[in-house]
Amino acid sequence: MDRRVIDLYDRFTHSTMGRREFLQRLARLTGGVAAASATLALLENDYAHAATVAADDQRLRTARVEFPGGDGPVQGYLAQPAPPELVRRPAVVVIHENRGLNPHIEDVARRLAVAGFLALAPDGLSRLGGTPDDPDKARELIYTLPREAALADFRAAVDWLAQHESSTGKVGCVGFCWGGAMSGQLAVHSPRLAAAVVYYGSQPAAEDVPKIRAPLLLHYAGLDERINAGIEPFVAAMKASGTDYELYIYEGANHAFNNDTNAARYDEAAATLAWSRTLEFLGKHLA
To answer: pTM of the prediction?
Structure first.
């Protein structure tokens, strides 16, 4: 796909650009309204293909849950191995992209549960009424959500999982895009966090890096110029503070390369390798 189209869609999904303006620009790039419509089908997430692990997989026990957030209840999706495999498990908070808690992120939670973890995917939009069905509306709501409020809810998710009856008490997190940035912020602000995985999320400020105690696993896409601009100062700060980190750049991959519901940006090779590294990292640090 034309690189300019990918870049335009990235600007649309990570700014307050309206859909009408985006579609007008897309039509100019692709040569007309019909071509823009065909291209849009490849650019947007298709949640009909979200279930790598089926929602009714008999190996798992899943539930809609509610837990106390920063200043009110937070809804979430909980997945864990089903009985007779029910034992205490290391736990992982799964932090969604800027489209809220959707079927793809719930599937990621199930993937972690199949791998032996207790996985909680909180709805970061709970305090705003929850994730709406319209992904554009979810994106708009994300940008009205104060970072400190969202961070308080995800910190509460770590604390709730640490005390869950099915948890060993060791909790990590994995976040994607907007959630990747939140994963980095949790590493700065959550003293209970034992490991953090960041997928193409913006980096914490250099002055906050010395506060990080949890080891980090950082996945970046080689073509993601917007996010990658922050890598160099972040790495310098981590080296200066002695932060335990692993960093991988997946050459030729686009931002959101892990999202297999997005035909235009999904990169199977990069996603598979990054996921295997994620499971190994979480298994090591949450054991």
So the answer is: 0.88
